TrEMBL record:
Gene source species: Microscilla marina ATCC 23134
InterPro entries hit by this protein: WbqC (IPR014985)
Record-linked Pfam families: WbqC
Domain of life: Bacteria
Protein name: WbqC-like protein family
Length: 221
């Protein structure tokens, strides 16, 4: 079984985080989320992937002035674009018939429709809800400033260790434990945790633990 590293894992803050994000989290006794890092475009920070009837779909939250260099904590969500309606329609289409959709859908719908100004506030509330549903420890730290690991001991880098550009297939650090998905004959790994929660419900935490047991003993560098 994979042993927990004693360092504190430094993570980015994702939108409806992918499954590998939580598996990585389980390897460490403590997690610190860096909200003072520079925002990185085309990462999981503002997007997630779900399984529709005929394809894997990307849901991306538009941000104000996303092309400019700015701190993640200062990033505002662009509600002038009608992304919220589209996201919820896609989530409902993907998982409306999933076994546990009716148990969790209202919670996520309510969080999204609070329409917080900042991406960090939206993602923090979604993360907290996901941790609770997964029965994982809900405590974590938020950075007070940018964590420079070249000058900080006792921390392990996890920011952008999991990235959409690496694709959906495990890359050697992250295995997969298959579960029954709503669509498709071939299992698609590392989708948003929404896929796992809606399909497996209270069994989702067990799936994460089984996935963790399939990981290499070495922690990600």
């Amino acid at each position: 079984m994979t042993q927990k590293n004693q360092d504190t894992l430094v993570l980015d803050l994702q939108y409806f985080p992918c499954i590998a994000y939580f598996v990585q989290w389980l390897k460490y006794p403590k997690v610190c989320i860096d909200i003072h890092e520079n925002y990185e475009k085309q990462s999981y920070r503002n997007r997630c992937y779900i399984m529709l009837a005929n394809k894997v779909a990307c849901l991306s939250v538009p941000v104000v002035k996303g092309n400019r260099k700015q701190l993640y904590k200062d990033l505002q969500i662009d509600y002038d674009q009608k992304w919220l309606v589209q996201h919820w329609r896609s989530i409902s289409s993907a998982y409306g018939k999933a076994p546990f959709y009716e148990y969790f859908a209202d919670d996520f719908h309510n969080i999204l429709h609070k329409k917080p100004c900042y991406l960090v506030d939206l993602n923090l509330e979604l993360l907290t809800k996901c941790l609770k549903l997964l029965k994982m420890p809900e405590s974590f730290d938020l950075s007070n400033n940018y964590i420079n690991l070249n000058h900080t001991e006792g921390f392990r880098e996890g920011r952008s260790a999991i990235h959409p550009k690496k694709g959906f297939q495990p890359d050697g650090q992250y295995g997969t434990f298959n579960y029954a998905q709503v669509f498709g004959k071939q299992f698609v790994p590392n989708l948003s945790v929404l896929d796992l929660l809606f399909c497996e419900g209270p069994n989702a935490g067990f799936i994460l633990q089984k996935t963790l047991e399939m990981q290499p003993d070495t922690a990600p560098e």
